[in-house]
Amino acid sequence: MILKEIQVQEHNESQYALHKKKFSFLSEALIDNGINVDKILDDLIRFQIAIPSWALGTGGTRFARFSGGGEPRTLEEKIEDVGMIHSLNKSSGKISLHIPWDIPKDYKKIQILSASFGIQFDAVNSNTFQDQPDQEFSYKFGSLQHTDKKVRQQAINHNKEVIKHGIELGSKSITVWLSDGSCFPGQLNFKKAFNRTLESLKEIYSSLPSDWRMFVEYKPYEPNFYSTTVGDWGTSLLFANKLGNQAFTLVDLGHHLPNTNIEQIVALLLNENKLGGFHFNDSKYGDDDLTVGSINPYQLFLIFNELVDSETPFIEKEFGWMIDASHNVKDPLEDLLQSVEAIKIAYAQALVIDRIALEEARDANDVVLCQEILQNAFRTDVRPLLAEARMQAGGALNPVQTYRYLAVRKNLISERGNKSVSSGL
Ligand SMILES: [Mn+2]
Q1: Distance, CA 161 to ligand 1 centroid (Å)?
Q2: CB contact set of 186 (below 8 Å; sequence gap of 6+)
Q3: What is the side-by-side strand order in the sheet with 320-323?
Q4: How many CB atoms lie within 10 A of CB 328?
Q5: What's the gap in Å between 282 CA and the centre of ligand 1?
Q6: Distance from the CA of 196 to the center of ligand 1, in angstroms?
Q7: Which of 13, 143, 207, 283 could anchor a disulfide with 128, C-beta 3.0 to 4.6 Å?
Q8: What stretch of H or E contains 80?
Q9: Is 257 helix (H, G, I), strand (E, B) or coil?
Q10: How does 203-234 read in b/e, with b if 16+ C-beta sit within 10 Å?
Q11: The pLDDT of residue 61
């Protein structure tokens, strides 16, 4: 199903009068506070967040998977679904592919298709956390860390192949997430595992084109439950520093132990010029991969507070902005629309922080005022700014509502069937 801009605009018209009222009220208040509203709108229009190819179908748990129907069956249909999201929100002009789930058969055709939706290719993702039917050696005891050089070499070659697919599609980065680690004390020699992983990563790194970046993603536990070889941001940063200036740390919000101060990690990585990008999601207990902003929107805002607080204009930073969420009970496309919205709300709220006043209050140790300034911004309802930016870019004033009004899922089910299953987890 392909949306026409006119369908979106027609639905916008029914909501325009109310939007105009809300937007005028907010923009007048912001302008009174010396905020450049046009610049914020421009920044919001330019900020694009990549959709992961694996989030377009219903995610599962290790217990069950309940398909919602109409899921994309091929890479072409996944790109079509990202095109659908992008035509509604004008903020998802990128897709992040997972190899081997999304190996293109015809690069040129895929590029023409994605360009027709205005979609570019963000980071490609390798997969050495599960065995593929045709592979010679098993990753049961790890991949890049494995004790057997032959297994490590197979995993290295896979990563090099992922880079090759990425080059063909115009991607500029690879994300390496390893499930390597151990389940029981004594199973693994930590130092040897680290050094073998480093040696393997070095070989992959050496095949990176000069304009590419490598993102090293960390995670504290699962599927290994005693140790993970790239277990935290410090370990990822160690690897990135040893690899060179094309290697960076990737922060997946769900890959932290409960109550970790993620915004401080982000600030320090920015300070070291080693922040590569994000996998956005939300969680209450572990790596829950819930909709961004559904559990802890204040944390998301505090992360954007750090991102905006920088010499380099935020929008010119070349980070990988990616969602990594997938679950069982929502329509995946509605879920992704909600996630993108939550990210952009946090961004817009961070843009309305009075940064000069905040820095002065910090210097004066006025703790109360610091909190007042931050929370004034966090409690500003910036949604009319997002709606205005989307409308100016040709998208929907209210993407989820428009999606439902146009009965997109019903159409997808009639096109693809009720029992289609998306490739992936
Ligand atoms: Mn991730």
Answers
A1: 20
A2: none
A3: 120-121, 94-96, 50-52, 320-323, 275-280, 247-252, 213-217, 173-177, 124-125
A4: 15
A5: 11
A6: 22
A7: 143
A8: helix 75-89
A9: coil
A10: ebbeebeeebbbbbbbbbbeebeebbbbbbbe
A11: 78
Q: What would the two tokens of residue 359 be?
A: 């820095």
Q: Please give the distance, rounded to the nearest whole angstrom, from the Cα atom of residue 236 to the centre of ligand 1.
A: 13
Q: Give 323 Cα–ligand 1 centroid separation in angstroms.
A: 8
d(CA 332, CA 57): 6
Residues 6+ apart with CB under 8 A from 125: 52, 96, 97, 98, 99, 162, 174, 175, 177
**What's the gap in Å between 85 CA and the centre of ligand 1?**
21
| Rounded-to-integer distance, Cα 123 and Cα 96, Å | 5
pLDDT band at 314 (very low <50, low <70, confident <90, very high): confident
Q: What percent of the chain has pLDDT over 70?
A: 98
| 377 contact partners, CB below 8 Å, separation of at least 6 | 301, 349, 350, 352, 353, 354
Q: Report how far apart, in Å, the C-alpha atoms of 127 and of each of 8, 37, 102, 123, 178 are.
A: 37, 43, 11, 13, 8
State how far the Cα of 230 lies from the Cα of 41, in Å rounded to an integer: 38
**Which residues share a beta bridge with 189?**
none
Helix or strand (DSSP H, E) at 120: strand 120-121
Dig out the tokens for 335 from the structure. Answer: 């879920």
The size of the chain, in residues, is 425
Q: Which of 288, 418, 280 is nearest to 344 (CA)?
A: 280
CA atoms of 275 and 266, how far apart (whole Å) = 7
What is the pTM for the complete model shown?
A: 0.97
Query: 3-state secondary structure string, 404-425?
Result: HHCCHHHHHHHHHCCCCCCCCC
DSSP 71: -
Which residue in 259, 254, 244 sits closest to 212, CA to CA? 244
Q: What residues have CB less than 8 Å from 289, skipping those under 6 apart?
A: 59, 254, 281, 283, 324, 325, 326, 327
Identify the helix (H) or strand (E) that includes residue 321.
strand 320-323
How do residues 124-181 score in pLDDT, each as one tens digit?
Answer: 999 999 999 999 999 999 999 999 999 999 999 999 999 999 999 999 999 999 999 9
Q: How many angstroms does the Cα of residue 289 sit away from the middle of ligand 1?
A: 9
Q: What are phi and psi of 400, to 5 degrees?
A: -65, -45
Query: Over 80: is that where the pLDDT of 422 sits?
Result: no
Residue 310: what residue type? S
Q: Report the relative pairing of strands 213-217 and 227-228 from DSSP bridges.
A: unpaired
